[in-house]
């Protein structure tokens, strides 16, 4: 362990003895964007960890910073964005400090990413099979023929029927669900230790979404990869993940087991988010909507980003509360669970 | 035991007051053809659909991409021209109306679209956008139009000072409020809400749904409500219709449909709602394969190629939408066994 622990400790320390060493530890990550109007703090002090083979969901609405977090882990932040602070430890190496050449080796190898839109990940002028072959060859010293065999194997694993035939198809010939299966095959080509799925089913119909989520759950058990699932839909997280992080305004509001957070949310934002979602049996009653809207990126308040919409807003909320365990093994960033004390 | 009449002739329907009756509606689009094939093919986007919407209710329409739900809805409000069949609004067949009469009728049927950004002219101010319909119909003198616009903007939760701004100055939720005020301006009786909350964040979606409910109670509105989020449709609708490959395959009260679907496709669709396992303990039915092409749909039941209950008869006879129990209609030869 040794090196450079310090400030981050307070943020992550979760109860529980002898937790397995984390595959991924994000410490106080800050990813900012310089704009003409000022600096947007898209991700502002996010910390979490993920054990090998585990699954974690990140839920948030637009502007919560959930996707910027995943792009930061992949080091895919382009100007005017930049990682302003913090560390992203992957198997002990800090991805923030790693030279681009090494990051490229990790990307698509040990860490891979599946996006919402499979057409953005697939090249329209190459067959889907050849794209998987290229991905394999980029990371492994094997022959093209062997790589194609592996591609067919991967297609079979992600449930593409007649894989020997389908490898020769072009992306536009496939349905949305099949394309997303191809990008998942592509992501799994090099047996990643970490698979990041960013809104993987948002563009899909509900029955196709169910197929893809079943596939992800099944694969996670079979290939033993850790999964980080980014989504706006807490129902999707419930299908795949053990644990969930709720983000708002670039910060982590709450973290805990999916069951705990959905059955008994603690943070006022989590409460509001769940209250906004219609549940069976709620017919005829108004939804417990959160008033107002997410503040504009440049108008985020000092301190807790949710204060302007929070029914429990207190004076102390102008300072950001730390993530703390209220006593049941989860983490909440809210002064309500701090007795309203000043930091 | 099952009657094969149309949904509007059920006992409860006869008592209820249908504001809109759709009979044998077909909307087909030509595709391909051209020089090489020499023959035009037809996409049967809406293929012989009959149902009624009752005054003051919310009728939810669900189904996956390409099932024809948007085309059906757009055919009803005549944003598409149906190929055949009838749409009766308060007893009057909209297809038989002259252009002028139809224009007068249109103020009773308004539409709220999914993406307010693309349905609101960016050069117009909020005042102009809300007043546009009023200014075209000219039923009211100018000062009263102005008054109504000012009242509306506040009623949908915006402020008067917003009236002189342009759409891009608003958030997605606020833009949808503008779209709602615009739809309400002519005091319509019927509103097609086509994915009105799909582009919005969850917390904002709840605000807009609450607003739509309040307005419905206040103005006695009837809604045809389309959303791809099945939980939202259940919550918001009185009755729900399910479409598959251009056909209406099941219609029932929302609670009953979600608790006890009788058509296998509905069953599979509802079982796919994410996160539901824990809520309702429903068993997930994962459908095999993909939706067949609407150009060349299967013979008989459109769902038979993916149905785990299909028998010989399903390929031969198209099951009619039949009343399988009071006010519950399903198009399945084996609806009693589902």
Order of adjacent strands in the largest pleated sheet of chain B: 6-7-8-3-9-10-12-11
Structural class of chain B: alpha/beta
What count of helical segments of chain B does DSSP give?
A: 14
Distance between the termini of chain B: 16 Å
Largest sheet: spatial strand order of chain A:
6-7-8-3-9-10-11
Bin the strand percentage of chain A: 15-25%
**Rg from Cα of chain B:** 21 Å
Largest interface: A-B, 42 and 41 residues
How many strand elements of chain B?
Answer: 12
Task: State the helicity of chain B in percent bands.
Answer: 25-40%
Mind describing the biggest β-sheet of chain B?
8 strands, mixed
Beta fraction of chain B: 15-25%
Helix content of chain A: 25-40%
Write up this protein:
The complex is a heterodimer of chains A (343) and B (338). Chain A has 343 residues and is α/β, with parallel strands linked by helices. Helices cover 31% and strands 22% of the residues of chain A. Chain A has helices spanning 9-12, 66-73, 100-106, 118-121, 128-139, 144-157, 163-166, 176-188, 206-223, 234-240, 258-263, 268-275, and strands at 22-35, 38-51, 55-59, 81-90, 93-94, 111-114, 194-198, 226-231, 243-248, 251-257, 331-332. In chain A, strand 4 (81-90) and strand 5 (93-94) form a beta hairpin. In chain A, helix 5 packs across helix 6 (144-157) and helix 6 crosses helix 8 (176-188). Chain A is globular and about 65 Å long. Residues 1-17 of chain A have low confidence and may be disordered. Chain B has 338 residues and is an alpha/beta fold. Chain B is 35% helix and 22% strand. Chain B contains 14 helices and 12 strands. Chain B has helices at residues 11-15, 34-37, 69-76, 99-106, 116-119, 126-137, 142-155, 172-184, 202-219, 230-236, 254-259, 264-271, 276-280, 312-316, and strands at residues 18-31, 41-54, 58-62, 84-89, 92-93, 109-112, 190-194, 222-226, 239-244, 247-253, 322-325, 328-330. Chain B has an 8-stranded mixed sheet, sandwiched between helices. A 4-stranded antiparallel sheet of chain B has the order 2-1-4-5. In chain B, helix 9 links the parallel strand 7 (190-194) and strand 8. Chain B starts with 10 loop residues before the first helix and ends in an 8-residue tail after the last strand. Chains A and B meet through helix 9, helix 10 and helix 12 of A and helix 9, helix 10, helix 11, helix 12 and helix 13 of B.
């Amino acid at each position: 362990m040794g090196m450079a622990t310090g400030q981050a400790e307070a943020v992550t320390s979760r109860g529980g003895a002898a937790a397995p060493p984390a595959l991924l530890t994000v410490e106080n990550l800050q990813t900012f964007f310089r704009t003409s109007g000022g600096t947007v703090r898209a991700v502002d002090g996010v910390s979490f960890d993920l054990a090998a083979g585990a699954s974690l969901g990140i839920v948030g609405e637009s502007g919560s910073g959930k996707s910027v977090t995943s792009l930061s882990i992949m080091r895919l932040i382009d100007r005017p964005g930049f990682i302003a602070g913090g560390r992203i430890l992957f198997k002990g190496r800090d991805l923030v400090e790693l030279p681009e050449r090494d990051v490229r080796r990790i990307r698509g190898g040990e860490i891979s990413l599946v996006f919402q839109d499979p057409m953005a990940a697939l090249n329209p002028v190459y067959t889907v099979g050849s794209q998987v072959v290229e991905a394999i060859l980029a990371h492994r010293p094997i022959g093209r023929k062997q790589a194609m065999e592996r591609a067919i194997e991967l297609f079979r694993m992600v449930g593409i029927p007649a894989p020997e035939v389908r490898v020769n198809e072009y992306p536009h010939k496939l349905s949305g669900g099949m394309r997303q299966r191809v990008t998942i095959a592509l992501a799994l080509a090099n047996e990643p230790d970490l698979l990041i799925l960013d809104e993987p089913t948002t563009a899909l119909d509900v029955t196709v979404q169910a197929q893809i989520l079943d596939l992800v759950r099944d694969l996670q058990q079979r290939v033993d990869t850790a999964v980080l699932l980014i989504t706006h839909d807490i129902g999707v997280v419930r299908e795949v993940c053990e644990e969930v992080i709720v983000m708002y305004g670039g910060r982590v509001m709450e973290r805990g087991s999916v069951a705990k957070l959905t059955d008994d949310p603690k943070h006022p934002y989590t409460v509001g988010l769940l209250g906004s979602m219609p549940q069976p049996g709620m017919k005829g009653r108004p939804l417990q909507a959160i008033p107002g809207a997410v503040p504009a990126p440049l108008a985020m308040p000092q301190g807790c980003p949710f204060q302007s919409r929070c029914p429990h807003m207190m004076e102390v909320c102008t300072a950001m509360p730390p993530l703390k365990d209220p006593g049941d093994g989860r983490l909440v960033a809210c002064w309500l669970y701090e007795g309203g004390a000043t930091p | 035991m099952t009657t094969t009449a149309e949904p509007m002739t059920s006992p409860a329907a006869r008592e209820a007051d249908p504001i809109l009756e759709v009979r044998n509606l077909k909307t087909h689009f030509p595709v391909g053809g051209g020089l090489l094939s020499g023959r035009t093919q037809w996409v049967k986007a809406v293929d012989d659909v009959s149902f009624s919407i009752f005054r003051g209710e919310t009728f939810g329409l669900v189904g996956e991409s390409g099932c024809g739900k948007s085309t059906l809805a757009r055919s009803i409000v005549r944003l598409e021209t149906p190929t055949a069949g009838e749409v009766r609004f308060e007893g009057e067949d909209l297809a038989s109306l002259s252009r002028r009469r139809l224009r007068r009728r249109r103020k009773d049927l308004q539409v709220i679209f999914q993406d307010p950004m693309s349905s609101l002219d960016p050069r117009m101010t909020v005042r102009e956008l809300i007043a546009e319909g009023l200014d075209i119909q000219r039923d009211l003198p100018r000062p009263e139009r102005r008054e109504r616009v000012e009242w509306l903007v506040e009623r949908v939760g915006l402020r008067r000072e917003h009236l002189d701004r342009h759409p891009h100055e608003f958030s997605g939720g606020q833009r949808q409020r503008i779209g709602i005020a615009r739809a309400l301006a002519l005091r319509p009786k019927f509103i097609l809400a086509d994915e009105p909350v799909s582009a919005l964040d969850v917390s904002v979606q709840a605000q807009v749904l609450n607003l739509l409910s309040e307005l419905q109670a206040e103005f006695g509105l009837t809604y045809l409500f389309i959303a791809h989020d099945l939980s939202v449709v259940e919550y918001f609708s009185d009755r729900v219709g399910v479409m598959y490959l251009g056909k209406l395959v099941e219609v029932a009260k929302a609670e009953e449909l979600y608790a006890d679907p009788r058509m296998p496709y509905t069953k599979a669709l509802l079982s796919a709602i994410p996160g539901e396992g824990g809520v309702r303990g429903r068993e997930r039915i994962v459908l095999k394969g993909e939706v067949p092409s609407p150009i060349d749909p299967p013979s008989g039941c459109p769902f038979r190629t993916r149905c785990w209950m299909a028998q010989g008869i399903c390929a031969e006879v198209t099951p009619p939408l039949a009343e399988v129990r009071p006010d519950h209609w399903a198009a399945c030869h084996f609806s009693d066994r589902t």
